[in-house]
Please model this.
Amino acid sequence: MSKFDGFTRDVENVNRRWQNRGCSVGAMLAALDAEDRAEVQSALDRRELTSVAIYNALLPRVGSACPSSYTINRHRNQSCTCEVETK
Ligand SMILES: [Zn+2]
Model:
């Protein structure tokens, strides 16, 4: 019995979980009501606003649900897991 029995299956399971979940920005947006989501989305779409600035404005509003500025940046660059499904 090798340590690597079922390795690919484990990777597939984790991968599927991540794809289903999306990143924490997507999760936070999904939890907001439509009006708030549109407000945050419009800030995310303005490239002149930095992800750090968005993080700092989000933090007092969403508290522990606030994604890191790194995650916000990744979401804006569409290199996060939730963009896979929306493309
Ligand atoms: Zn995302």
